[in-house]
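user: can you give me the structure for this one chain? tokens are fine.
assistant: on it. calling the predictor now.
[tool input]
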Amino acid sequence: MGVLAAHQADSSLILETAHHRLEKHCGVGDQIIVEHNGQRFFTKFRGAKGEFILRETSGAGKAKLTVIQDASYCLADYTKKLAAAAIGHNTRLMVRFISEGTVFSFNTVVNAIYARPPLLMLDYPGRIERRNLRESERLSTLLPVSFSTNGASHKHSGAVVDISAFGARLAVQNLDGVSERNTILTSFTLPSGTRVSNVAMIVQNISSESEKQYVGGKFVAPEQAVTDYYNECMRNLR
């Protein structure tokens, strides 16, 4: 559980996971990705409570703490796309989100679904995995790319000029409708011939150099084909 914080309530002990608390890294309204059976769905985080009520018991001459109530949960918007994918009670999910340059992920199960407002109640994660986006070197490349802002029909064109397993930098012809913190959907073909489509990327920075415009960002969730390509290239370069 990591570092623990505890306080007394109704003669029982309330134990909180203080080291990797979900709500320390993911704020209400932040975008998260829910993965199920190879599909990815964008939704929003709506809060969490990581709390376990314990009682001291004794047996065989030893005292121990026993969980008598798991009062922990987390909430996310239950979108129409999630409903259409038949995600319901007891469905197992993988949840991912990015915070301050780190990808967080955890496995969970749907405990309940609320209609008004439409919300998923999920198991609070017992373990949250993390990976620092900045741990990966960028690989210089030149791949034609098309992209659009999330929800827009107009597509921009440009080139991927460097890439890692977790993000990319694009040289673009124009920046109409693109700003920092936007989510853009990128599509490009890897040198292997593999086409990757609608890879979501959060814009982190926009810059101009020698009359060229660049967009740097991080992928909302790693794309397996991009990760495989990047890892193969880095192995060959070492």
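assistant: here you go. The first strand starts at residue 4 and ends at 9. Residues 144 and 237 are 23 Å apart (CA to CA).
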